[in-house]
Amino acid sequence: MQNPWQILQSQKIYDNPWIELTEFQVITPGGRPGIYGVVHFKHLAIGIVPIDNEENIWLVGQYRFPLNAYSWEIPEGGGKLDIDPLVSAKRELWEETGITAQKWKELFRMHLSNSVSDELAIIYLAQELDLGSPHPEDTEQLALRKVSLNQAYQMVLQGEITDSLSVAAIFRLQLMKWEKQL
After folding, report:
1. Using alpha carbons only, what angle is made at residue 31 by residues 25 and 36, rounded to the nearest 5 degrees?
2. Percent of all residues in the chain with a pLDDT value above 90, rounded to a whole number
3. Average pLDDT over all residues of the chain
4. How high is the pLDDT of residue 138?
5. Domain 44-110+118-178: which topology?
6. What is the distance between the alpha carbons of residues 21 and 38, in angstroms, rounded to a whole number?
7. SS3 for 88?
8. Which of 119, 88, 132, 129 is nearest to 106 (CA)?
9. Taking a C-beta distance cutoff of 8 angstroms, is the pair 74, 164 a contact?
10. CA 43 to CA 160: how far, in whole Å?
11. Residue 95: enclosing H or E segment and its boundaries?
């Protein structure tokens, strides 16, 4: 399908090592002049669901600055665009939880907020786990929590887990469990 937006001009408004914000002067699909702001992400969003043989998963708790709130979520972080996303997933899981896994499977890819950003997320399932000690970055103050998949699913339904990567991953695993694919 052809792009119905006509770009007249663009201007970089903000740039840091993680994101870039560009404002576009446009003609909308309806033919009117307008503006559109796009956040370009310089890294992939990577999410990992570590699950053991008893269907327990590990959640990471941390204070999320943009929300001004505490959040329980699957282990997640960023991956450089020029590095295999699985390498980044293994690093993030080890840093945040101390867990390494022998078996990895990509569950899905998704765009996180495609009306304003180009951020791509890749979610992995990690199995055959070996537990260790976390190695968080200095920007992270993390708590770990082991819960059953059913408990995590209930946490999503009750609004205790609201992070988009976590919600999507937990719903996907619950669906796989119902379909006897997990």
Report:
1. 30
2. 93
3. 96
4. 79
5. Nucleoside Triphosphate Pyrophosphohydrolase (3.90.79)
6. 6
7. helix
8. 88
9. no
10. 27
11. helix 85-97
